[in-house]
Amino acid sequence: MKISVIGCGYLGAVHASAMAELGHEVVGIDVDVDKIRALAEGITPFYEPGLPEVLSSALASGRLRFSADIADARGSAVHFIAVGTPQKAGSNAADLRFVDAALHALIPHLQKGDLVVGKSTVPVGTAARLAEVLSSSGSGAILAWNPEFLREGFAVQDTIAPDRLVYGVAAGEDGRRATAQLNEVYATAIEAETPLVVTDYATAELVKVAANAFLATKISFINAMAEIAEVSGADVTQLADAIGYDSRIGRRFLNAGVGFGGGCLPKDIRAFTARAEELGRGESVAFLKEVDAINLRRRQRVVDLTVAALGRSVHNAKVAVLGLSFKPHSDDVRDSPALDVAVQLRGLGSDVMATDPQAIENSRLRHPQITYSTDIEETLRGADAVVLVTEWPEFKSIDPVWAAGLVNSRTIIDGRNTLDAAAWRDAGWNYYGLGRP
Ligand code: UGA
Fold it and tell me: Which neighbouring-strand residues pair with 386?
């Protein structure tokens, strides 16, 4: 199929590359000329395992090209809108201006029979509004909403072989046509019997935010248990194992620690709350405010634990921070708990040196006041306290005996409960986990 992908950020760049890899003829379009130039040369503007390989192979096949001119969308049968919906400044709501701008820019280039597919995460009701815009444009194109569930770090795999497909379509003939076109786009996944839910616009939009709200709630639930464990002497990691054996609960997303961050979960639960309030049902998801509050408290807890563990004035104490990205296998520092902890400790006057396998550049752009090092040994040398806040394999495999020989004081705060506490204690460390004795 001939496909255009409007917006070549995280979602769009991966989607365009993966669709071309699956055999479609794809043009990726973005207003950012530098980004387009880089992608056209096979350079990914962010770190995502596997993406450089898929991008290069798709470019080499001749099926993938990039353009900064929206007119190049003309001739494609399916147009994916994959632009960002960030949090609005000064509000919890989602900023939809990029989605609106993309559709308006696309409309003059649409032809009868084209399908426009929204992929961006939007407040419920957006698709119905955009369908109206499209229908009154006289372009003859129709709209579907097809939310994306990819995880950073696994984005390519999640796009090529998704765990489910959701199509939000109009009623009647238009809906049947949209479904048939999407089935052609996702022929490989359909053949592999990927679960498919074909539904209305509102349900498709809600599925996406409900899924992220559920995941955020699961993480904050276990972090709330960590808070209780901290005042009762229990161990939240064992608690998570024990409740996780119940298959109705499941162990995944029950890792207590410094909490969730990134470009999705935090802003999506806030936007969901704002939208529910607009719809007069704020009370239905009021708990998400608590989910957010619990999450933010865990960052503070790591900072407080570090200050307490230092056993000396935090001022000028050397603190080694291991991790900056919001999760491993990503260079994304949007709403990153790890970077936030480093910034707060720096703000208290400590001498922070932070390291991360991929996220130093992005962190430095936002927070140049922190000292960064690409070298774990240099980061640890002379430290009065070590704080692990992103569970990269590189940090998990640090030998506590080796590290003991580098630091000034053997104090470690494991903000992800990921280290072998016994091994670190055996090597003479004061080990502090979250929600653990
Ligand atoms: C999330 C969802 O998992 C995807 O399904 C969704 O498509 C995506 O948002 C999106 O809306 O685009 P992602 O932001 O890549 O994906 O990250 P997650 O793997 O969900 O992790 C989010 C945060 O939760 C990370 O900071 C991670 O460290 C934290 N987390 C995760 C925990 O603190 N504990 C856990 O047990 C699991």
Answer: 320, 412
Ligand 1 environment, Cβ below 6 A: 121, 148-152, 212, 215, 219, 253-255, 257, 259-262, 264-265, 326-327
Domain coordinates in residue numbering, the chain: 2-199, 235-437
**Fold of the domain built from segment(s) 2-199:** Rossmann fold (3.40.50)
Q: Whose CA is nearest to atom 10 of ligand 1?
A: 264
Reading the chain (437 residues) residue by residue, the pLDDT tens digits are 999 999 999 999 999 999 999 999 999 999 999 999 999 999 999 999 999 999 999 999 999 999 999 999 999 999 999 999 999 999 999 999 999 999 999 999 999 999 999 999 999 999 999 999 999 999 999 999 999 999 999 999 999 999 999 999 999 999 999 999 999 999 999 999 999 999 999 999 999 999 999 999 999 999 999 999 999 999 999 999 999 999 999 999 999 999 999 999 999 999 999 999 999 999 999 999 999 999 999 999 999 999 999 988 899 999 999 999 999 999 999 999 999 999 999 999 999 999 999 999 999 999 999 999 999 999 999 999 999 999 999 999 999 999 999 999 999 999 999 999 999 999 999 999 999 99
Q: Please name the residue whose Cα sits nearest to atom 30 of ligand 1.
A: 260
CATH class for domain 235-437? alpha beta
**Measured in angstroms, how far is the CA atom of residue 151 from the centroid of ligand 1?**
7
What separation in Å is there between the alpha carbon of 216 and the centre of ligand 1? 8
The number of the ligand 1 atom at minimal distance from the alpha carbon of 10 is: 12
> Identical fold at 2-199 and 235-437?
yes
